[in-house]
Prior knowledge:
The chain folds into two domains: 2-120 and 293-322, Alpha-Beta Complex (Quinone Oxidoreductase, Chain A, domain 1), CATH 3.90.180.10; 123-264, 3-Layer(aba) Sandwich (Rossmann fold). 29% of the residues lie in helices and 26% in strands. The protein has eleven helices and 15 strands. The protein has helices spanning 41-46, 114-118, 121-134, 151-159, 175-183, 195-202, 220-225, 249-254, 263-269, 273-287, 303-311, and strands at residues 2-6, 15-19, 29-39, 64-71, 83-87, 97-101, 105-107, 142-145, 167-172, 188-191, 208-213, 227-235, 257-260, 296-299, 319-322. α3 crosses α4 and α3 (121-134) packs across α10 (273-287). The longest helix is centred in the C-terminal third of the chain and has 15 residues, at 273-287. Bound molecules: NADP nicotinamide-adenine-dinucleotide phosphate. Residues 40-42, 122, 126, 147, 149-153, 172-173, 177, 192, 214-215, 236-241, 261-264, 310, 313, 315 line the site of NADP nicotinamide-adenine-dinucleotide phosphate.
Amino acid sequence: MRAIHIRSLDGPSAAELVEIDEPAAAEDSVVVDVHAAGVAFPDALQSRGLYQYKPELPYVPGAEIAGVVRSAPEGAHVRPGDRVAGLTMLSGAMAEVVALQAERVFALPDAVSFEAGAGLLFNDLTVHFALRTRGRLREGETVLVHGAAGGIGTSTLRLASAFGAARTIAVVSTDAKAEVARAAGASDVVLADGFKDAVKDLTGGRGVDIVLDPVGGDRFTDSLRSLAPGGRLLVVGFTGGEIPTVKVNRLLLNNVDAVGVGWGAWTMTHPGYLAEQWAELAPLLASGAVRPPEPDVFPVERAGEAIASLEDRTARGKVVVTLR
Ligand SMILES: NC(=O)c1ccc[n+]([C@@H]2O[C@H](COP(=O)([O-])OP(=O)(O)OC[C@H]3O[C@@H](n4cnc5c(N)ncnc54)[C@H](OP(=O)(O)O)[C@@H]3O)[C@@H](O)[C@H]2O)c1
């Protein structure tokens, strides 16, 4: 089969299209003919050996796929011929065939294309976990999201109102990214530079109930300052490069929480959680209450460029590579 290999930790340009053997499938795994695979920020970090999970070289990058089931164990919830999305979780996705644990395979609603399906699970399930489980989002609250034109950002903008948010404020670095955030459903968009004052104006001085932060770095303290009393800052990632530190008196003074969000680790310690998440998300996608992502699509031959677009900050929304 055709697959992308990373043979050296020299960054996304090391991505190479190769012919390798199809995966040896365990009896209890679901084998999927892959149509498209999602690209996420960890793919860029991994290609330089900078992510906490370090696969052995050479490895196939990518955490998520969409495609058609080729074979499934007796009694599984999916059957040969079903359209599905699936999680390889952190490597193995950019290949024409994958073998997945059954609990990481999800029947794709008809309304969701393979390209959209390949860009769905990793971010939407993280954002679901962040807003619902960790962030305790309540009806009528306001959600601010950093990196709003990125994968996690657009996912937050697509999902927040379906989970009860009355308003979303998108923080982006450029006017072009502001357009991406608006298209994903942002109520308001502000530039990262000076976002704290802009948020103060937009909320009449009250602040927001939730900040979902995949960026970190030097905006962290201003994010805490932008929270309303009882607000929650959800720590999702550090695309800005720096892991911020926090003076905890700020939490006490304004009665706010800084909340860790580690979705992958949670799924490992909570069997059945992925299925619970999908049971909430799939009907929203099927009914149109949540729109599927509209990813930027690259052919697999350009997988290196696709991964690089996250690293060099040119990506608009979710990025996906097609394999069929
Ligand atoms: N905690 C979890 O369970 C979990 C799960 C999935 C992903 N994540 C993490 O979430 C983060 C976002 O992932 P993603 O796939 O959404 O990434 P993405 O699509 O590349 O979006 C990240 C955004 O970060 C902003 N950014 C600010 N400084 C940046 C820099 N120096 N380099 C690159 N981007 C920068 C960019 O927006 P502007 O240019 O507008 O600032 C960009 O749109 C990653 O750290 C990822 O590891 C965490």
